[in-house]
Amino acid sequence: MALEFRVEGYLTERKLAEILSVLAPRGFTAQFRVDGHNYRWDIKYEREREQVLVEYNGDEHYRNSLVIRSDRIKGQLASDHGFRTVSFPYWLQLDSFTLGHFFGFEAQIVQDFPHGFITTKLFPASFCELGIQRFREELFRLPPRLQKPVLQSLRDRGEEYGIEYVLPSALFGILQDGGTDAQRR
After folding, report:
1. Each residue of 62-115: pLDDT tens digit?
2. CA-to-CA distance for 70 and 120, rounded, in angstroms?
3. Are the CB atoms for 59 and 93 separated by under 8 Å?
4. CA nearest to 122, candidates 81, 73, 89
5. Contact assessment for residue 24 and residue 45, using Cβ atoms and an 8 Å cutoff
6. Model confidence at 177, in pLDDT bands (50, 70, 90)?
7. DSSP, res 178
């Protein structure tokens, strides 16, 4: 029988760490640093023969260009040291599918909070230029079953607040049938 976890409300870094610490207790560390470097990852764990570094990307990973720069340096540093990295965006929730898709684990996740921009007021219209690029790239790397609820949440928030307050004009096209190939780049 698979393990079962309940996530109350929206996902946080702490909730993600609690679940991963049970699923991958070997080598689990919160707030991990590579020796000799000041860059920090939220979570490190070992799985089979690989070491995995996890960054829970809150809104600052989309709004602050220096955080995005740091993330890029961290990604290269992790690669240079043979780590696999996982970046998990704040606008997704942990459920059984995302657990498998991002982390490769199987467990029953009971989650009643949907993917997307539901209660947050930090929409892509608040992202810096590099954050808009990051969001677009992450969104279109996702399987359709994750893209669809995120896009629907943006449509819903656009109806609620006005689309120009939710999406920058550079992203308006993503709401038309999921965007065109040119808009996905």
Report:
1. 999 999 999 999 999 999 999 999 999 999 999 999 999 999 999 999 999 999
2. 24
3. no
4. 89
5. yes
6. low
7. T
Phi-psi region of 179 (alpha: psi -120 to 50; beta: other; left: phi over 0): left
* Nearest alpha carbon to residue 58 among 87, 85, 31, 79: 87
Q: What is the pTM of this model?
A: 0.91
Q: How far apart are CA 85 and CA 53, in angstroms?
A: 5
* DSSP-assigned states of every residue in 17-85: HHHHHHH--TT-EEEEE-TT---EEEEEEEETTEEEEEEEE-THHHH-HHHHHHHHHHHHHHHHTT-EE
- The count of other CB atoms within 10 Å of the CB of residue 16 is 20
Output b/e per residue, 112-146; b: 16+ Cβ within 10 A.
eeebbbeeeeebbbbbbebbbebbbebbeebeeeb
Distance between CA atoms of residues 147 and 137, nearest Å: 12
Token pair listed for 70: 């740091």
